[in-house]
Write a structure and sequence with these properties.
197 residues; alpha+beta; 8 helices; 43% helix; globular
């Protein structure tokens, strides 16, 4: 049987928490820092006692998906542990890993203040064709905080909007076709409408 010839486009990442698809930017377009971050990560999976979940990306079963899981201390409302699962391009995987590092120890408001520059400081520069993954990462933070507020703190829609405002039809909202916060917000709105009917 002939050996498979590896090229710079050959996918190389297949673990339970990270899955690189075949249609990625060439590996040569990725910064060494990005590759080293992915190779060294140990934050994959769901932390014990996780009480917040976020899922963002292209369509629900699409090619690029970022999932975050967090254990948030209810007394301090501070991230204690953060894990991830991601599939798609290396940039999406690197962003999920960066968030699992950046969020640990932060309060909810500190988490929401994280910027794309903060993420790229951890990942290194990402290929221009994969810059949209930074938008997914920022939306993942919002979705993770929103999930905690809705499911653990039992926030109302007004409380959720005050802390994680909805930016309907904004560029990030339009790019992020799948957003668990959007789903939670719709469920919460429907529940509140039923209660007042």
């Amino acid at each position: 049987m002939p050996k498979q010839r590896l090229t710079e486009d050959t996918p190389f990442l297949r673990t339970p928490d990270m899955y690189q698809i075949e249609k990625d930017a060439p590996i040569s377009e990725y910064d060494r820092k990005t590759i080293e971050l992915i190779a060294a990560t140990s934050n994959g999976g769901v932390p014990d006692g996780a009480n917040a979940f976020a899922s963002v990306g292209k369509e629900k079963r699409g090619t690029v998906q970022m999932q975050l899981f967090a254990l948030i201390d209810a007394d301090e409302e501070r991230f204690r542990e953060v894990g991830f699962r991601s599939h798609g391009c290396l940039a999406a995987i690197a962003c999920a890993i960066a968030l699992s590092d950046l969020l640990r120890g932060k309060t909810l408001s500190e988490a929401l203040a994280i910027t794309a520059d903060d993420i790229q400081e951890v990942t290194g520069p990402l290929p221009t064709s994969r810059a949209y993954t930074l938008v997914f990462a920022l939306e993942a933070i919002r979705a993770l905080v929103g999930d905690y507020l809705v499911h653990t703190r039992q926030a109302t829609l007004a409380e959720l909007d005050a802390l994680v405002p909805c930016e309907r039809l904004s560029v990030p909202c339009m790019l992020t076709e799948n957003c668990s916060l959007r789903d939670s917000r719709v469920e919460l709105e429907m529940r509140e409408r039923e209660q007042t009917a």
